[in-house]
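Ticket #4471: structure output looks truncated?

Reporter: J.K.
Steps to reproduce: submitted the chain below (205 residues) through the standard prediction queue, then opened the result file.
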Amino acid sequence: MGGLELVDLSDDELAAAAAVGDAEAFAVLIRRMSPVLLRYMRRMVSDRQVAEDLAQETLLDTWKALPDFGFRSSFRTWMFAVAHRKTVDHHRRRRDLPVSDERFAELSANGPEPADSAEHSALMDALRAELENLPYTSRAAWWLKEVEGLTIDEVAQVLRVSNGSVRGHLQRSRKFLVVRLAPWQPGAQPSDDERSSDRGRGDRS
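Returned output as attached by the reporter:
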């Protein structure tokens, strides 16, 4: 590495080194990715211990499969894809995978996206609660795009759906969250009617 510290390497550079047997590079990669992965798992699985277990399984599986990883995507995207399969399998075993999009049917809204307005703890608490009401795939698509910063193409790779499907899930999720988080919008009042106040009511439930 010519004196370059492992912590200065990109995720993909660390993964490439780990793929040829550099355990130290993988350890650095794990330290970097673990908080990100666990944060995602906790949004996808309500049981905290199960989320932690699935995160550990995901990291173990990526370690085992790294020698065969062809870098056709970034390591980060691949890791989320493995995590997605883990959570889907978990929900299927429990027979509680939410798949219906019917709750979105009558929703429509205009205004800033929730990710742009999530500035204080009250809103974040509300956002976390409302995310639980999203169908699984819509929740995953929203989280990967808005929080983890993946592109549409990358989210599609993770979820194994088309780009158009990802856009559809994002559009419905954003409309749903804008409506449900309306009391936290700038100038909002805790009502479903038009808001006219200049001050938000983030402390109202």
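Triage note (M.O.): checked the attachment and the full token line is present. The chain has nine helices and no strands.
Status: closed, working as intended.
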